[in-house]
Every structure is written in C-alpha cells, then in structure tokens.
Specification:
Main location: membrane
CATH class of the largest domain: Mainly Alpha
Transmembrane segments: 106-127, 147-169, 176-192, 198-220, 232-250, 256-276, 297-322, 334-353, 365-384, 390-412, 424-444, 456-478
Largest sheet: 3 strands, antiparallel
Biased composition (Basic and acidic residues): 1-23
Radius of gyration: 24 Å
Strand order of the largest sheet: 1-4-5
CATH topology of the largest domain: Growth Hormone, Chain: A
Subcellular location: Membrane
Number of strands: 8
Organism: Venturia inaequalis (Apple scab fungus)
Helix content: 55-70%
CATH superfamily of the largest domain: MFS general substrate transporter like domains
Distance between the termini: 45 Å
Number of helices: 14
Number of domains: 3
Oligomer: single chain
Length: 487
C-alpha cells in the first residue's frame, strides 16, 4: 500500500502560464496573484513511481500568501490521464473545474465514505441500545447519568477528534488516519466484549472507539468533495447496528454480540482502507483558530445555538427505548426497534431538507425544523401507547436530522467570509458544540434518576427550543427581519 505522506517538494521558477506573458493579476480579497509567481510541485502519492508514470501526477500551483482563491494548475499523467491538484494556501476546497464528478475511482470513494459513516455516526446513533442494556442488566448498579457519560464521551471525541485531525488530513496523512481509526474501532469493540466493570467500558467504548471515530470523521467528509460536486454519505450503521445488537444479545449474550459487531466493523472498514485514495490536498497547513471568528456575532450566536441544541438533541436517542419499556408503551422486543426507526427517519431528514435548502437557504430550513424537533420532545410527555410513540419517534428522527446535516453548510455558505478559513471555522464550531453533546446527556441522566422522564423531556425540549431561538437570532443578524430572503 502506498503512502500519501512521503511528499516531495520541488521548486520551479517558471510557472506553466508564464509562457503566455500575462501580466494581469487576480484579486483574492487579501492579495493579488501575479502569473509567473514561484510555484511548488507536489506529488501526493506514489512518489517513487515518477519514472513509470504511475500514481497521482505532480501539480504546479502558486504558494504563499498571494495564492488565489480556487486557482490550481494541473498536469496530466501520461499513463492514466488523471488530473490531480494541490490547492493554494488561501483555499480549503479544490477548484471545481478540476473535479472528475464521476468515474470508477470516484465512485469507489463514495463507497469507502459510506462505510466510514457507517462506522462513525452509525456507531454513535446505536448507543441507545447500550444505554438500555446497561441500565436494565449489565451495569444495573450504575446510575443513568454515569452510563450516559459513555455515549457522550464517544460523541465528544468524534466531533473534537474531527477538528484536531483536520490538520493531519491536510498534511497528507489520509491513509494513516483511516488505518489508525479502523484499528481503534475494531480493537475497542473486541475489548468491550471482555469488559465486566464500568471503568473498563469507559476505556474501551468511550475512549478507544470514540478516538477511532474521530480519526475517520474528516476523511469521510473531506474526500468526497474532491471527486464530486455533491454526494451524500449516510450513517446507515445507526439503522443496522441496533437490530444486530438486540437480536444477538438475547441469544448469545453481551460479549459475543459485541464481538460480532466488531467483526462487522472489521469487514466494512477494510473496504475504505483498500479503495479510498486522496486526489487533492491543500498546499498549506490549516490553522486551528481563526481569531476573527470571535468578533463575528452571527458566527458566535449560531455556534451558541448549535451548542445548546446539541445538549438536548441526543436525549431522545439515548432514552427513547428505556422510556418506551418503562412506561409500557410497547413490549421490549419492539422497543429495541424504535432506535432503528429513529435513525432511518433521520436519514431522510438529512437528505430531503438539504435539497430544499439549496432553493430557500439552509438557515431558513434548520430554524423551523429545529422548532418542530423541540416541540416533539414535549409531546412525549402525554404519550403512553405504541402508535403515538412510533409516530413521535419517526417525526423526531426526520426533523432532527437537519441538526447534523445543515450546520456545516451554514458555516460554509454564510459564516466564513474568508474561504481559506472554512476548515478552521468548522473545526472551531464543532469543538465548541462537542462540549454541549458531552454534558447534555449525563445531566439528563441525573435528572432521570432524581425526577423521572417527564423532567428529562422538559429539559431536553427546552434546550432544543433555546438553540432554535439562537439560530433564528443568527439569521436576523445576517439578513435582518426579512422572512422571505434566502439565507
């Protein structure tokens, strides 16, 4: 397997466009780029195969502070004709004119990204089954709050890990990230199958698996945009893993059930490790912090809204099964399918609103969807029957899907005026939001232990509605009180 980290840097004083003797400059908003400026040739894969024409070809692009937005020069491999670009320092996404937008290799990246999402958000969205198993049998002596820390730490490490591994991905260590992440996820499941105490489960499930998903998050998101203008990867693991765990748990026990899931993760993670191949890398390291973001009221208010919303968002995912069993809304077998229903509806909630958002604007979609999500949490309080529980679960899964899918789009389109700092602002926002996801569910667990489910739903619904209000305020700060303006 070839490495993407052994880059060769060769300097050239002659840019391919210099022959045209163009003296025009391109304004970047920060500086002007002069044709003929110093370039840097970068081979991002198969460095040792230049003589045979194999691998990704080198590219000559301007580097340094004067690099233009979205400008990248390309060379074509004599053998396979594949275009490769390395993006200038002021750019966080590649020049769309160079995107293949199809072909076998490109579709293999979609397949690989699908399985990365399968084993990141898919695993995260399965924790409700573990929460029920731990509370009712495996960790019966532990409080709901202490158990929920396991899943909350997982989500936190997924989101913060994505922010911290962004610069590693930018530096060309794509294969190392997915290899390490895959190992940690598989190893974590195998160790979890042997755990007999709370602290062992914290180490195996929360930290080991959580760190593994954090390594895979950025590669899963980042590589698709370099092959396609727009393609969606879906966290379908959240539909499949709950069913597998529940069906096996009653027949072969917890240990072997988790081992089977570990073997599934091993098989499905081998695919992206084999087929995924980076096509384009930024020419400069990504900054971890954009200090100007703290002076941007719309960015800070929206991030605060997402932070508060994520505090309440996952309470439904963590506790709906236990609630249905405790309140005798359904039998235990059907209750375990509620989480799969929730995640299946969430898939459609991430796709359909995204298409509508292209027409009317993402902020105009996420605010009403978040509002409905908050109201739906409150509607659980008077529901004690199967039909009502299923309907509320499906509706919440659909409308809450925008909480995961649209914030990155909003930050990219409306809250990142400097296109070269998109990745930085995404990382900053998700790091802050991750803290909300970390603390919300343990607080809900403590409330459940002291006051019962009614107080949990009041707490969760209030948080989601408060987050909605802050998101709405962010929209007002951007476009004013005009309700029919695309935003």
């Amino acid at each position: 397997m070839s490495s993407t980290t052994d880059h060769e840097y060769e300097k050239s004083s002659h840019h391919p466009y210099a022959d045209d003797k163009l003296n025009d400059s391109i304004g970047t908003g920060d500086a002007a780029f002069e044709y003929g400026e110093k370039t840097e040739d970068v081979d991002i894969e198969n460095v040792g195969s230049e003589m045979s024409g194999e691998g990704i070809p080198r590219t000559g692009v301007p580097v340094g502070p004067g690099a233009p937005l979205g400008l990248a020069a390309t060379k074509t491999s004599e053998k396979n004709g594949v275009d490769a670009t390395r993006v200038g320092t002021r750019v966080s996404v590649n020049n769309t004119s160079q995107i293949p937008n199809g072909g076998f290799k490109a579709w293999m990246q979609v397949v690989g990204s699908f399985f990365l999402f399968f084993n990141t958000w898919g695993i995260m969205n399965t924790f409700g089954v573990y929460q029920t198993i731990y509370e009712t049998s495996y960790l019966r002596s532990s409080t709901p709050s202490s158990i929920s820390w396991i899943g909350s730490v997982q989500i936190f490490l997924l989101m913060v890990g994505g922010a911290l591994t962004g610069p590693i991905y930018d530096a060309g260590h794509f294969r190392a990230l997915i290899a390490v992440g895959s190992f940690l996820i598989v190893f974590g499941h195998m160790m979890l199958s042997l755990c007999t105490s709370y602290w062992q489960i914290i180490l195996a499930q929360a930290f080991c698996i959580g760190l593994g998903t954090g390594c895979l998050f950025v590669p899963a998101v980042g590589i698709i945009s370099t092959y396609f203008h727009s393609k969606l990867a879906l966290a379908t693991g959240g539909v499949i893993y709950p069913i597998v765990l529940h069906r096996l748990y009653n027949s072969i026990g917890f240990g072997w059930s988790v081992r089977v899931i570990g073997f599934i993760t091993l098989a499905t993670l081998l695919i992206p490790n084999i087929v995924m191949k980076p096509r384009v890398l930024p020419a400069a390291k990504r900054a971890l912090v954009d200090w100007t973001a703290f002076k941007s009221a719309p960015f800070m208010v929206f991030t605060a809204g997402t932070f508060v919303g994520f505090m309440g968002l996952f309470m439904f995912f963590f506790y709906i099964q236990l609630y249905a069993i405790t309140k005798h809304a359904t039998n235990e077998n059907l209750a375990f399918y509620l989480l799969s229903m929730l995640n299946a509806a969430s898939i459609f909630g991430r796709i359909i609103p995204n298409f509508i958002a292209d027409k009317v604007g993402p902020l105009n979609i996420i605010v009403p969807c978040a509002l409905v999500s908050g109201i739906l949490v409150f509607t659980l309080i008077p529901v004690y029957n199967l039909g009502g529980t299923v309907i509320v679960t499906l509706l919440y899964g659909f409308f809450s899907g925008t909480f995961v899918s649209l914030p990155p789009t909003i930050i990219v389109q409306h809250l990142s005026p400097n296109r070269g700092l998109i990745g930085t602002r995404l990382g900053m926002s998700f790091s802050i939001v991750a803290v909300g996801a970390l603390i919300g569910n343990p607080i809900a667990g403590a409330i459940l232990d002291a006051r019962g489910f009614t107080s949990v739903w009041i707490f969760g619904g209030t948080l989601v509605l408060a987050g909605t209000g802050l998101m709405g305020l962010s929209r007002v700060l951007l476009v004013g009180w005009r309700p029919f303006v695309k935003a």
